[in-house]
Write a structure and sequence with these properties.
two-stranded antiparallel ribbon; binds magnesium ion; 11 strands; single chain; nine-stranded mixed sheet; binds adenosine-5'-triphosphate; alpha/beta
Length: 288
């Protein structure tokens, strides 16, 4: 049985046999706007709330942008974790990636004391593009994933260009090397519909279908494990709050205050088409 860590994405653990695999690498593939950076931030924040140390390696967007997006989501606690040095940023944007991976990264890993951190790389794409030769790509990426697994559990995002069907050539090698692959299928041309699929997850009985997901202020990505998507009326956040409070009888005061704060950030969220009962279950699973 594979040991699991909670992903921090409400609804995802229910379809992945309990979460992401401990000390493994997961690649999250999606087109621009699919929610990759949001996913990576959620995964990191979940770790921080559990007391883990976290590392955010940015190869493209800068640290300030990632923090701004997190604050926009209502995740102000990220500032506290940075100040406490529980969250470390490694800004590798603009670097020469082969030497970063071969020289700086092993030194960084060697200096890291524990092996239960959470690591996010967002996005992995510049490494792939910097090395057109397939064998170089493969060797560098395999080395990078292996090094980072020594430090903890890894989530790396990957941009999808062209049609959202995993056919783009730049995804092949990372998909092959990673222990898990998740696809965020997002088409702006298709009414902005968002669907998530677990393409692979080693040692886990995961769902094989596409699941609707949404990006909701305060929560980030939320995956709907049932595919019903029952229609709801307005006043849904209040309805959700009622359902949550019923489910929180035995929750800790910390968990309750976290959920209340999250509900505040959600006040303008559009929850039409969302199955509120399933959402309440997913939130409880992710927060408690
Ligand atoms: N505070 C927020 N409230 C609601 N929705 C948000 C918020 N922040 C982001 N989103 C949604 O998430 C989408 C972008 O998410 P994100 O930046 O994680 O995507 P990405 O896949 O990393 O994109 P890129 O490839 O351009 O980096 C936005 O287009 C928006 O729909
Ligand atoms: Mg991004």
């Amino acid at each position: 049985m594979v040991e699991k860590v909670k992903s921090g994405v409400p609804g995802l653990d229910a379809i992945t046999d309990g979460g992401l695999n401990l000390n493994s690498s997961a690649v999250i593939i999606g087109s621009t706007g699919a929610g990759k950076t949001t996913f990576a931030t959620q995964f990191i924040r979940r770790g921080l709330l559990e007391g883990s140390e976290c590392i955010f390696i940015s190869l493209d967007e800068n640290k300030e942008q990632i923090i701004r997006d997190a604050l926009d989501m209502g995740w102000e606690d990220i500032l506290y974790f940075i100040q406490e040095e529980k969250l470390v940023f490694v800004d590798a944007s603009g670097k020469e990636f082969s030497s970063f991976i071969k020289k700086e990264l092993p030194d960084f890993v060697a200096s890291w004391k524990s092996s239960n951190a959470r690591v996010a790389i967002d996005p992995l794409t510049p490494v792939v593009w910097a090395n057109p030769a397939r064998y170089v790509q493969r060797e560098l990426l395999a080395f990078m994933l292996k090094e980072l697994r020594k430090v903890g559990t890894l989530v790396a995002t990957l941009e999808e260009h062209g049609p959202p069907d995993l056919s783009s050539p730049e995804t092949v090698i990372p998909m092959y090397l990673a222990d898990s692959v998740l696809h965020l299928r997002y088409r702006a041309s298709d009414n902005f519909s968002r669907m998530l699929k677990v393409v692979k997850m080693r040692g886990s009985r995961h769902s094989e279908g596409y699941h609707k997901y949404r990006i909701i202020p305060g929560l980030g990505l939320v995956v709907f494990s049932s595919r019903s998507g029952a229609k709801q009326d307005t006043g849904l956040v209040r309805e959700l709050e009622k359902l949550l409070m019923l489910r929180l009888n035995h929750a800790s005061p910390v968990a309750i205050s976290r959920i209340k704060k999250m509900l505040k950030s959600m006040k303008d969220a559009d929850l039409e088409d969302v199955d509120i009962n399933a959402l309440a279950d997913s939130i409880v699973e992710a927060f408690v």
